[in-house]
Amino acid sequence: ESTWEHVAQAPPDPIIGVTDAWRADTDPRKLNLGVGAYRTEDGKPFVLQAVREAERQLSADPAENKEYLPISGLPEFCRLSRGLALGPTSVAIQEGRVATVQALSGTGALRVGAEFLSTHLPPAHPRIVYLPNPTWGNHKTIFAKAGFQVREYRYFDPASRGLDFAGMTADLASAPPGSVLLLHACAHNPTGVDPDAEQWGRLLELTREGRLLPFFDMAYQGFASGDVDADAAAVRRFAEAGLELVLAQSFAKNMGLYGERAGALSVVTRSKEVAARVESQLKLVIRPMYSNPPKHGAAIAARVMGDPGLCALWKEELRGMAERIKAMRAALYDALQQRGVAGDWSFVLRQIGMFSFTGLTRPQCEQLVSKWHIHLTLDGRISMAGLSAASAPYLAEAIADVVS
Ligand code: PLP
């Protein structure tokens, strides 16, 4: 008898499960709208030219080797990452009060950040994190594993398929002081709904008044608008207002480095001395977890960000990805209009980033899968990146059928 006889079968991951079902589907019309990764017009993964060129340079560089990185990662990568997020004129960076460590993409940054907070928040602060409802599924588990009590704030309004700002602010106003407030920096996953500039201003005030600690998850910088600076506006505004904050960055989507696991965790503090102590403690979190991060993805990202030519090429390609996604929103909206599908679908145009939260019910989603071979998560989220000019009308036809 096995030692593990009592071990129960774990449920499959809901998102990875969608891709498995799509792969097993033999219908030629099949579509994968579950995956959170960019696809070309032909439905293929996309390796950016800037990344290919950086890899070519790296492999030709005799100074490159396979030695371990420091515990906190590649210093140049950390420096460039926080610069990308906080901007070229960041006072916090100029004053040296930002602690940054390389992380295993966005997930790893969140996990190390949560662990650090759990250990080092002042003892009198509650270990409570406020997450938007809904949010990226992994957030809950990440913070729960780090010992946080997880609470939700209202976010998505199903009626308008937009932001429930009144609900959001009411929930945050009642959060105990010292609670951690998780905010999606841009391109909220899964809803595609972001606060506007005025609402961000109000959120900043609420954060300050309620003495909440903002933790920005920035998994889509540049992917929302096509412009890395525009997409960082909220984070920069909080930092420039003098707030302390935590920031998780990922290069999975905006540089297409998914499997390379390139990301960063920054803690913006009030002084250089505090930042140095925080960084020393972040290393103590990392060392017993995985010792030090992988080199290749960070080396690529550092080359791309650090070389003016490659950086310009990257930003152009990033804009191209964002533009294609916006074009798919327009194509889907037009096709829905042409079919006269009931209801107001203008939210498809308004929502931002990779995903659209359609409001389709679970039975409707199940029908999309079984009858139309369109694979998606059953919460009604569709990845706009999985659409093409050819498949958008097919999706509209299928939606028209399941909502009728
Ligand atoms: N945060 C959000 C909101 C995401 O959507 C994702 C990925 O889908 C991540 C974090 C983490 O991604 P990764 O660990 O691949 O960088």
Automatic annotation (TrEMBL):
Reaction(s) catalysed (UniProt annotation): L-aspartate + 2-oxoglutarate = oxaloacetate + L-glutamate
Broad enzyme group: transferase
InterPro entries registered for this protein in UniProt: Aminotransferase_I/II_large (IPR004839), Asp_trans (IPR000796), NHTrfase_class1_PyrdxlP-BS (IPR004838), PyrdxlP-dep_Trfase (IPR015424), PyrdxlP-dep_Trfase_major (IPR015421), PyrdxlP-dep_Trfase_small (IPR015422)
Keywords: Aminotransferase, Pyridoxal phosphate, Transferase
GO molecular function, one term: L-aspartate:2-oxoglutarate aminotransferase activity
GO biological process, one term: amino acid metabolic process
SUPFAM superfamilies referenced in this protein's UniProt entry, alphabetically: PLP-dependent transferases
Alphabetized PROSITE patterns for the sequence: AA_TRANSFER_CLASS_1
Keyword field contains Transferase: yes
Gene Ontology cellular-component terms listed: mitochondrion
Domain spans labelled Aminotransferase class I/classII large: 29-399
Cofactors, names only: pyridoxal 5'-phosphate
CDD domains per the UniProt record, alphabetical: AAT_like
Family according to the record: Belongs to the class-I pyridoxal-phosphate-dependent aminotransferase family.
Protein name per Swiss-Prot or TrEMBL: Aspartate aminotransferase
Record organism: Astrephomene gubernaculifera
Lineage start: Eukaryota, Viridiplantae, Chlorophyta, core chlorophytes, Chlorophyceae
